[in-house]
């Protein structure tokens, strides 16, 4: 979503970045053409920037509001996965060789640090204060990296088949979606488990907090999106979609479900890359 919640930004397989507007987000306006040889893409959560990696190791970040190339790195090789845009689009977290993570200073083009992540890496989540980067292997192994002091604090999370992970907006909660059929939530102060959420018919593929932190959205393989209250952890709503799996596959990771900045719309993508958007009803509805 764009910062004003009125548009959705997409990158298609033909390399076209488009902006979709209108009451039903059906009015398409092309913004950029980046070519078809890209490997991975990452949109910043505020919709201002887009990072793209190419099959030849080239990395680019784009300022989407101004439609200009912000930074370009040429000193990486091979296929590079993208896990986070930091510092207002001036830093980038990447993954190469399957399980080697890097933090880059895009202004200088230099590597800040690198560290080993789980060998069977699935989701990576970065805390809102951009201090912690948590990577979870499918077998339950966890690597937590403190980006500020370049240390690896020990974090034990009991979860298997992790496919999606996220911090709450205030950083106090951490949620993981599991292909085993549940989402699990911890308090980050002590990493104490506070909830295990079930009810999806098949696996859970993503978990995302609303901007105010009052709701958690989970998406399952039964084409359903569920909303949970983050105080009682009760299910409050189920939204039906199309297709067998509501998840958006990029080259290296599952794109998470997204709330619009104003909290009035939710976006998810199914296995056929069809974007689903649900609007919150009016008070009358």
Summarize the structure.
With 285 residues, the protein is mainly beta. Helix content is 0%, strand content 51%.
SSE order in H/E notation?
Answer: EEEEEEEEEEEEEEEEEEEEEEEEEEE
Strand content: over 45%
Amount of helix: under 10%
Strand order of the biggest β-sheet = 4-5-6-7
> Which stretches of 5+ consecutive residues score pLDDT under 50?
none
> Sheet bearing the most strands, described?
4 strands, antiparallel
Overall residue-averaged pLDDT value: 90
Shape: globular
What brief labels describe this structure?
mainly beta, globular, 285 residues
Structural features, described:
There is one protein chain. With 285 residues, the chain is mainly beta. The chain has no helices and 27 strands. The chain has strands at residues 8-11, 16-21, 27-33, 38-43, 49-54, 59-63, 68-73, 81-86, 91-96, 100-105, 110-116, 121-126, 132-137, 142-146, 162-167, 173-178, 182-187, 192-197, 204-209, 215-220, 224-229, 235-240, 248-249, 254-255, 258-259, 265-269, 275-279. The protein has a four-stranded antiparallel β-sheet, with no helix packed on it. A four-stranded antiparallel β-sheet has the order 8-9-10-11, with no helix packed on it. A four-stranded antiparallel β-sheet has the order 15-16-17-18, with no helix packed on it. Strand 23 and strand 24 (254-255) form a beta hairpin. The model has no long low-confidence stretch (mean pLDDT 90).
């Amino acid at each position: 979503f764009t910062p004003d919640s009125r548009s959705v930004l997409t990158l298609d397989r033909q390399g076209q970045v488009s902006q979709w507007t209108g009451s039903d987000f059906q009015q398409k306006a092309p913004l950029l053409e980046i070519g078809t040889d890209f490997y991975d893409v990452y949109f910043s959560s505020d919709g201002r920037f887009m990072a793209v990696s190419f099959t030849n190791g080239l990395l680019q970040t784009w300022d989407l509001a101004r439609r200009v190339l912000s930074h370009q790195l040429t000193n990486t090789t091979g296929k590079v996965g993208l896990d986070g845009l930091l510092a207002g689009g001036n830093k980038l977290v990447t993954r190469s060789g399957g399980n080697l993570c890097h933090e880059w200073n895009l202004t200088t083009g230099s590597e800040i640090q690198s560290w080993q992540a789980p060998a069977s890496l699935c989701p990576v989540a970065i805390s809102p204060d951009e201090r912690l980067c948590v990577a979870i292997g499918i077998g339950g192994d966890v690597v937590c990296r403190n980006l500020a002091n370049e240390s690896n604090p020990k974090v034990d999370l009991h979860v298997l088949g992790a496919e999606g992970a996220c911090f709450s907006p205030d950083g106090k909660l951490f949620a993981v979606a599991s292909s085993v059929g549940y989402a699990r939530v911890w308090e980050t102060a002590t990493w104490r488990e506070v909830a295990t959420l079930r009810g999806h018919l098949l696996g859970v593929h993503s978990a995302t907090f609303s901007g105010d932190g009052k709701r958690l959205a989970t998406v399952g393989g039964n084409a359903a999106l569920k909303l949970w209250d983050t105080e009682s952890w009760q299910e409050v709503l189920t939204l039906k979609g199309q297709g067998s799996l509501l998840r958006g596959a990029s080259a290296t990771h599952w794109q998470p479900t997204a709330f619009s900045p104003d909290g009035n719309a939710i976006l998810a993508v199914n296995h056929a890359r069809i974007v689903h958007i649900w609007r919150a009803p009016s008070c009358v509805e």
